Amino acid sequence: MPRVLGDSTTNRMFQTANVFVLILVGFICIFPFYYVFVVSFATPEQFRQGGLLLFPKQWTLASYEYILATKAFLRAAGISGFLAVVGTAASLLVTSTLSYGLSRKRLQGRKVMLVLILLSTLFNPGIIPGYLVVKELGMINNIGSLIIPVLTNGWYVLLMKGFFDSISPSLDEAARIDGCNEISVWFRIILPLSLPSLAAFGLFYAVGYWNTFFNAVLFINDHNKWPLQILLQNILIDSSTAMGGNVMEQSMQNLPTETKKMAAVVISTIPILLVYPFLQKHFAKGAMIGSVKE
What we know:
single chain, globular, MetI-like fold, 15 helices, mainly alpha, disordered C terminus
């Protein structure tokens, strides 16, 4: 009996320590986001007082009005939105169709293609060869250079192939007996069954396209074609020159640069935060299905 009590006490101490550590880690992760959010709504007077600003006594939307009124920010947000929507749709189309084809044993050259895809996950061609390929294709300063080089991902293809492997080939055969061709089988049978997987990998692709930065630095020289992350970098470096709004800058000189930076960061994160709750119910299932076999 004393031994049981001792084990129970130890277990409670462990659970208490575990909860404390998790709360501490959660606070450390959440606090920077909270601070960015609070500073973005702070008035210039409160921010210039210095110190750690935890809760403004007076809230203002001046920084958001400044950001949303600048053509450079709206143009960059539109480009990033275009990349997220069109790029994600194109990537899902290529990845899902390629994965489905590789999951069917009747595909000729299937094993060779699988080996090549596996090698692409192990070896990276590097920055210079990638840049030269894009340059030879004439895509420098072209929005397509931010989509085509990353149109699919070998690891995602292999994971999604595992999902399609779990779909019985008898469904394909039954659909063909009913008169369906390959395209009809894909859209009427396979695609509806693939929604959890498509939702999960679609979120991966959407976040990647929305946060496009390095490829834009390499391939886009025209500031009118910058995606949002490049513009944010320039805002962090020099707000007055990056926004390209001299008239707006003169009329709102009292706004601290830091509050405008924080407002830009908050605005840039909102779209992904809004999309995630709608896909969350499919996320865990879609990401893990096909990765293990029962």
